[in-house]
Write a sequence for this structure.
């Protein structure tokens, strides 16, 4: 989501990096707009709504939380569910009191007390639509470069998803996923094995409204190149599938266009992407972000295979070899990688000897499952 926030926080999209001098257009800036991000579904919570301020054009990404607001959610049966500020700008529901129900309609309310008086925001009513299960997740090897002479092929991995709605109710989909992979340092050090968790930053949406049968086959969910060690040992992807209404689909589709396909500096601005949240006292007051309401289905998929040409991130680790095993005088920022009968290999790069600089040593509880 960080990538999405960067886009929402600026007034215009900067053209992608190139070899020319960066151009900062003279435009009217709109700082300090409220940015809302949150999602509720039909699975047990708690659910989280985040409030923050937009950033000025060119400003470094540093989240500016909006603190001290009052948030609650109402449904079409006039029930109220209050959120509590657990961290600055991060508001959560009580999981013991609130779980979304398919078919119900929910509205987010936000109240701010200012020196000028009370200011109220609310979302449009959002129906929690059902979503079908994910049928399957699978992958295919991709040859990035064919081997020449003594060198083998360089391979990547394309992950696909299949799903269908036998009831023909779900016309618009969105997918989010978390990647988890195991990596191992090539030396027998204390913290040798670790796991990394990384949430998707790409926007994945699909419109099947024009299809007679609501079937999705070979949707290209995620591509993994050889420039990462994700595929070196064991890899897992946890996919969440959401149903969308037409308005929310348009919202994510426009953001997807900005992220991936924009070809002109002035094609789309964030103000052209309508939010479903408005100010009651001043309907013309701009708000960024979206309050999402959707059912969720999930599936986990593992890959443990041999991929050729995967980058080795530890080639830089062997800094020096000390004959005789005497490491005195090498300094306090040197670590032993390997010891032999008459030598010691040392490095001054911490992540070569401690995998916790990149991940966690706690093995995921599901890591030995095989539900493919």
């Amino acid at each position: 989501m960080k990538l999405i926030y960067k886009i929402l926080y600026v007034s215009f999209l900067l053209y992608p990096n190139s070899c020319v001098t960066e151009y900062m257009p003279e435009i009217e800036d709109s700082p300090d707009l409220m940015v809302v991000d949150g999602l509720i579904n039909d699975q047990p919570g708690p659910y989280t709504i985040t409030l923050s301020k937009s950033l000025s054009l060119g400003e470094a990404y540093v989240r500016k939380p909006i603190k001290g607001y009052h948030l609650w959610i109402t449904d079409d049966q006039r029930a109220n569910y209050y959120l509590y500020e657990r961290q600055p700008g991060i508001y959560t529901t009580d999981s013991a009191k609130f779980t979304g129900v398919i078919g119900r309609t929910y509205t987010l309310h936000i109240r701010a007390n200012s020196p000028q008086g009370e200011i109220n925001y609310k979302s449009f009513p959002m129906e929690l639509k059902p979503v079908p299960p994910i049928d399957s997740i699978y992958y295919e090897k991709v040859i990035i470069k064919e081997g020449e002479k003594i060198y083998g092929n360089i391979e990547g991995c394309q992950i696909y998803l299949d799903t269908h709605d036998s009831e023909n109710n779900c016309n618009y989909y969105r997918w989010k996923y978390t990647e988890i992979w195991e990596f191992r340092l090539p030396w027998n050090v204390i913290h040798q094995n670790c796991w990394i968790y990384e949430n998707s930053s790409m926007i994945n949406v699909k419109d099947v409204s024009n299809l007679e049968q609501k079937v999705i086959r070979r949707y290209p969910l995620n591509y993994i190149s050889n420039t990462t060690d994700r595929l070196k040992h064991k890899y897992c992807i946890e996919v969440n599938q959401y149903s969308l209404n037409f308005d929310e689909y348009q919202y994510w589709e426009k953001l997807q266009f900005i992220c991936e396909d924009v070809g002109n500096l002035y094609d789309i601005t964030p103000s052209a992407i309508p939010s479903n949240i408005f100010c009651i006292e001043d309907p013309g007051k701009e708000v960024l972000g979206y309050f999402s309401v959707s059912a969720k289905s999930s599936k986990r998929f593992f890959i443990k295979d041999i991929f050729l040409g995967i980058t080795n991130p530890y080639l830089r680790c062997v800094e020096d070899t000390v004959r005789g095993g005497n490491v005195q005088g090498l300094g306090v920022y040197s670590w032993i990688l390997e010891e032999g009968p008459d030598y010691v290999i040392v490095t001054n790069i911490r992540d070569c000897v401690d995998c916790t600089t990149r991940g966690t040593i706690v093995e995921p509880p599901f890591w030995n499952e095989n539900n493919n």
Q: What stands out?
A: The longest helix spans residues 246-261. The longest strand covers residues 172-184. Residues 1-29, 262-269 have pLDDT under 50 and may be disordered. Helices lie at 2-9, 246-261.
